[in-house]
Structures are given as C-alpha cells and as structure tokens.
Automatic annotation (TrEMBL):
The lineage of its organism: Bacteria, Pseudomonadati, Bacteroidota, Cytophagia, Cytophagales. Belongs to the FAD-dependent glycerol-3-phosphate dehydrogenase family. It comes from Algoriphagus locisalis. Keywords: FAD, Flavoprotein, Glycerol metabolism, Oxidoreductase. The keyword tRNA processing does not apply. Pfam families: DAO, DAO_C. GO terms for biological process: glycerol metabolic process; glycerol-3-phosphate catabolic process. This is Glycerol-3-phosphate dehydrogenase.
Amino acid sequence: MNRPENLKQLQDSTKIWDIAVIGGGSSGLGVALDAISRGLSVVLFDKSDFAKGTSSRSTKLVHGGVRYLAQGDVGLVFEALKERGKLLQNAPHLAHDQPFIIPIYTWKDRMMYSVGLKVYDWMSGRLSLGKSEFISIEETLKRLPGLKAEGLYGGVVYHDGQFDDARLALNLAQSADEAGTCVLNYVSVTSLVKNEAGKLTGLRVSDKLSKEKYVVNAKMVVNATGVFADKILQMDNPEASRMIQPSQGIHLVLDLDFLGGKDALMIPETKDGRVLFAVPWHGKLVVGTTDTLREKPKLEPEALQKEIDFVLETAAGYLAKVPTRADVKSVFAGLRPLARPKEGSTKTKEISRSHKVILSDSGLVTLTGGKWTTFRKMGEDTVEYFTKVTGEKLKESKSLDMKIHGATNHVPAGHWGIYGFDAKPIQDLTKENKAWEEKLHPEFPNIEAEVIWAVREEMAVKVEDVLARRIRMLFLDAQAAIDTAPTVAKLMATEMGKEVEWIESELADFNRTASKYLIKK
C-alpha cells in the first residue's frame, strides 16, 4: 500500500466512485472486501490508522458465541459459525483453531455444558473445528496446569477460533488496495456533499498529515465508523437521535505461565453474569473481558480501576497463582458499538450483538453493531443496499471465498506466521541492510526489518502504527514497547526522510499513549 500514490487518486475531481466508505475498522473493511468482490470501485478513509479503535482491542477470538446460544440467539450463532469457518480457510496465517476448556465443578454443569456444546458442534456443520468432550480432573490439570484443583470435577473441551485482529484489518486493507480500492489512513471526513434534492453525492475530506483537502464523488456513502457512527449520522442530519450505546471491555495481559499449556480457559458465568476468557496469544495470556456502559466514545479509551479489579479478582478465583497488578504487562480497553436499546434495558448483555444496516433519507447507509467474526457478512449486507441507493444492478457477492492478503497453505513458523506469504520478502530485506537483522527488544522476536516493511508496504506513518498494530508489542508488554520506541522512531525517520524534530514529537506522542497501557501498581 502506497499512501502518496493513493492520495493522488483523490486529485481527479471528476471521478465518481461506486462506494465511499467512512471507517477503516472491521466494519468498513468488510464493506470494501465485499464491494470489490462484486467489481465495484471503492474509496475508504479512516481518520486515524486502520483498526486504531475497537477493531484492534478485541478478545482475539473468532467465535460463534457460546453465550449467544445460551441466550437463544440461534440465528446469530449459525451465521457466526459459518463465518468463523470461512475465515480460518481464507486467512490461515491469522486465524486458527483454539481449544477452550470450561472447568466443571458439579455434575449438573457437566450435563449442561456437554449437551450445549454438542449443539454448538452440530451447528458448525462441515466447518467444525473439532468435537467437544468431557475430560477428567487429571487431564484438565495436565492441559491447564495453572488452574486451581480445589473442587474441580473435570472439564469440557470445545473448539473456537483465534486471530490477530489488527493484522487482519491490515491484510483486508491490502487485499482491497490490490484490487484497486483507494484505502487511506489519517484522512478525516469533514462534511457530506449533497445535491439540491438533499441526496448524498460525496464527501469532503482532509489529509491529517499534509492538511490537504479533497472533494470525493460517490454513488453511495457508507458510515462504518463503529462507536463513532452517531457523529456521521448527525453530520448528515443534526436532528438525528443517537443509535450507538458504547460498552467498554478491558483485557489484562499476563505471562503465559499463569495458565500454562496451549488451551484457553473459559468461565461461562462470573458472579455478575459475564463471561471471562484467559487466552494464550503471541506468547502471553490475555484475560478479559468486562462489559461497562460508557456514554461517550473515545479513540483511546482507558480501563477503569473497578474493571481492572474485577478481572483480577475473578481470575484469582480460578488460577492457582494469584495475579496482582504488578504482574500485568499491558492493559487495553475497547468500546463495543452496540445498537442503543429501546427504553428500559440497560444491561449490555441484553443488547443484541447482531448488526443492523440503516438507510437515511439522504441515501447515507449506516452499518451498526456486529462483531469481528461476522465482518464479511456485515459487509455483504451493507453492499446489498447499493441497488436501493443507486438503482443500478449489483453483481453477486464473491467475498465468502476470497483469500485474504498473506494467505498461504504453508504458514511460516514462530512469530513470522502472521505475515503469511510476506514473511520471506521481509526476511530478504536484511540482504539490503544486515543491521536490520537486529532484534527490536531482547524479549521479543521481532527484527528491525519489520519496521522497514511496515513503512514501505503497510502504510505505517507513526511509531504507534508499528508498535501497536503492525507488530503487537504495545498490547503485549507496554513497558517493552516504550523501551523500543526510540529504535523504531529512528528507523522510520531514516526510511521516511524525517528530521530529529519528527522523532522527538513521535516519541512524545507514543509515550503519552503507551502510558495508558501501563497499570498503576
């Protein structure tokens, strides 16, 4: 992806794009993927970096939703299980099978979860990742050596998917870019353009780096901004009522030895009715999540002290080695863009995780709700509105079977796996400069060549882009990321032709952001 080249495409004021997408997270990228599968021309803007918001802050699971099955939302589970199976086929370098174990403490729980998960298996059909089964106390503790043995009756194993969310977003942007989509980060939409009849004809946008302004013509405009959807809706109609209810979820990152093994732990019901996961991810253990209503969306939300305490206390009830605040390597918070409920309901677990597509009087198409697992179906359902908005016939969607950038049947070993077929070209960069073989941090496998690749091929323009979303160090160990930032800044500055002032400014910005991922002891 080449940002300057993509910006040049905006200079043609006569060009009319089929679809202009606002938002470069899972929703917007799902729209772009489906649109290109139908041969439509697409331009996509994100006011920050791809997946900077909610889409890089998930529990890293591609799942059907065991909890939704318990709530009776069978349709959503069927849809999600199908999408889960196809994603593992289309992006095998990023998404893979993850065995989960539910600890069992009573005979009643054994029956309930065994039967429920057999239904989950059946619903997966030919896209199943493996059969669920009950295992003994001994087998449970062998597979989860960090689990408390007290009162344990056994465990139920089931299978779901795991993935790297920000890397998937990036690879989706690359897939779209390769198909002719104009994808751009750090370009904000400043206003909507309408004709005399009040119908949308395009957007006014501003490059946040150069301050250059552009007018973009489009037959259909899609608002796929997640928790920020209300801002675009009110840009379209100042009287529009709020449609999004932000719900905050946080995750704490611990050393893997708190759980041990390769299996994930799933606690289906905590004391307040939430689900808690402890999932191995990139050599660490991600523990979460919470579900806390927030009134205002933020691009960089912060974990509340009560949320941190809740996760630590709940984890302590199941782990033999009790985690403390001092053990937390990183804490990150994300906001779910839930559809605002009708009067009365305030419990977030009662708010549907299904997505909705809304068509405004102006022709603005807004995608709300949903989750990462169903991003492709969300995109397909949104693009279906193209005919309603334009009157033009639409080709059939082919996104269900589209391979995503990096997909390979021979996934590289170790941390190189997430790059898929790009791993070899990155390693080959060290022939250009042997110094790029050096590790960025002694405790992480990433090398300097990955920073160069991120700038040249992955549209990284800020230190945070690299350390948070190209390689995931900020999410895995915030202090390690802070220690690594000067090296990354110097490498980027040399590659991009930046001065010392840029390095100083970037490091100040990054340290300000990264401090929010450090837990106060």
